[in-house]
Write a structure and sequence with these properties.
Strand content of chain B: under 5%
Strand content of chain A: 5-15%
Largest sheet of chain B: none
Shape of chain A: elongated
Number of strands of chain B: 0
Order of helices and strands of chain B: HHHHHHHHHHHH
Distance between the termini of chain A: 50 Å
Radius of gyration of chain B: 26 Å
Order of helices and strands of chain A: HEHHEHEHH
Helix content of chain A: 55-70%
Oligomer: heterodimer
Number of helices of chain B: 12
Shape of chain B: extended
Number of strands of chain A: 3
Distance between the termini of chain B: 68 Å
Largest sheet of chain A: 3 strands, antiparallel
Radius of gyration of chain A: 17 Å
Structural class of chain A: mainly alpha
Strand order of the largest sheet of chain A: 1-3-2
């Protein structure tokens, strides 16, 4: 299985609950505040995800207007879902490991007594 | 500027800028990228007006440049392992022999006396045909990689300085950088003996043809002062020809051709030497490991 980039993982997360087109993916990333990427970087990542078999293009259109015809919708595949879950598990393990260190204890906010 | 007009202008500009991307990526994702840009722009213009449009452009421009750089870098890496070089490199390489044909033809149009002599006329025809074939080969084959073309073209300043100086020994000014550039091109292609030899030979060929262009152009530009050069005048009188200008150009054209042949041989030998040295170093490294 090919490696998953940070931007690729974030795009998989935005597609986890349903198919979206490019602008909707960027909006979701913007709302999460985790990453700000432009249209061409988005499609480079989309290409990499499609080549890895993590997402696929959907031929369904929610709104059959002229603008919607120009848009391309993408959905996550079973392989993509598995890759995202593996990455999520890896990040959880990392956080658990970080929580055991003095670094995490120092950064924890103090509660008022 | 009104909102619909600023969106229409931005659409036009962004669509033009997308041409910076390699054709393969553009044909696959150019239209969706344009649509996504328009969606972003329309939302921001409706929300914040011109300030929103500027914010979208401020993010879109670096994004476009970054993607174009990455995509071309990917293509360069891919071409370096046996693919076809980018069309820009192949065209730039093909332009070198094409320029030589143009310069030689122009020189004969200006000073046509030699064309009446069969040995010169046949020589020029053979030269033009050889350069034409070479231009087609460079434009269509895999030999004109970007590194080879850049190194070949980079020999030009050395030749200009060498021929402009016009003193004995000045040729070293052109030869030494040319040798270095041939070695650089061969080292960059030294994955196998074939690639290194080919890179050296093609860089040498391009450098040699540039000598033809430079020396003939220099002859045309300095034609008025040639009559004052005693050595040239003596050689011309000894040759039995009727036009000093045509004699000078003939000398320069065939002198340039000789230099090209020598450069091809030198390039091939240097490429081979680099390939052998690289193979030895790899063997030594493998043995020590």
């Amino acid at each position: 299985m090919a490696g998953l980039s940070d931007a690729g993982f974030q795009i998989l997360l935005t597609l986890a609950d349903g198919e979206r087109h490019g602008y909707e993916i960027l909006q979701a990333l913007g709302r999460a505040g985790t990453s700000r990427i432009g249209p061409t970087t988005l499609y480079r990542t989309v290409r990499a995800l499609r080549e890895s078999g993590f997402i696929e293009e959907s031929d369904q259109r929610r709104d059959p207007t002229e603008d919607d015809i120009r848009r391309r919708y993408y959905r996550i595949t079973a392989l993509g879902r598995q890759a995202a879950q593996d990455e999520l598990q890896r990040l959880r393990s990392l956080i658990a490991m970080a929580d055991q260190t003095t670094l995490a204890r120092r950064s924890r906010p103090r509660t008022a007594t | 500027m009104s909102a619909p007009r600023s969106i229409a202008t931005s659409r036009y500009l962004y669509a033009r800028l997308l041409r910076l991307l390699p054709g393969e990526f553009r044909s696959q994702y150019g239209q969706p990228a344009l649509q996504t840009f328009l969606d972003l722009l329309t939302a921001e213009v409706n929300r914040r007006g011109m300030r929103g449009a500027l914010a979208v452009w401020r993010a879109a421009l670096p994004d476009l440049v970054y993607t174009a750089t990455c995509e071309y870098a990917v293509r360069l890496r891919r071409d370096g392992v046996g693919g076809r070089p980018p069309v820009g490199a192949r065209l730039a390489a093909a332009l070198v022999p094409a320029a030589a044909v143009l310069v030689v033809a122009s020189s004969q149009a200006l000073y046509p006396a030699n064309l009446a002599l069969p040995e010169y006329a046949i020589g020029y025809a053979v030269l033009a045909a050889a350069l034409g074939v070479l231009a087609v080969v460079l434009a269509t084959s895999r030999v004109a990689t970007p590194t080879v073309v850049v190194c070949g073209l980079a020999t030009a300043p050395g030749w200009v300085l060498a021929f402009h100086a016009g003193r004995p020994g000045a040729l070293v000014v052109g030869v030494l950088p040319a040798v270095s550039l041939i070695v650089i091109a061969s080292v960059s292609a030294a994955r196998g003996v074939g690639e290194a030899v080919r890179a050296g030979a093609v860089t040498g060929t391009l450098g040699g043809i540039i000598v033809v262009v430079v020396t003939v152009l220099d002859g045309l530009l300095t034609m008025r002062s040639v009559g004052q050069d005693r050595i040239y005048v003596a050689e011309f009188q000894h040759s039995g020809q009727h036009s000093l200008a045509a004699y000078v150009l003939g000398e320069r054209i065939f002198g340039g051709v000789m230099m090209t042949v020598m450069a091809v041989v030198l390039g091939t030998l240097l490429g081979f030497a680099v390939a052998v040295a690289t193979a030895r170093r790899r063997r030594a490294r493998a043995t020590s490991a």
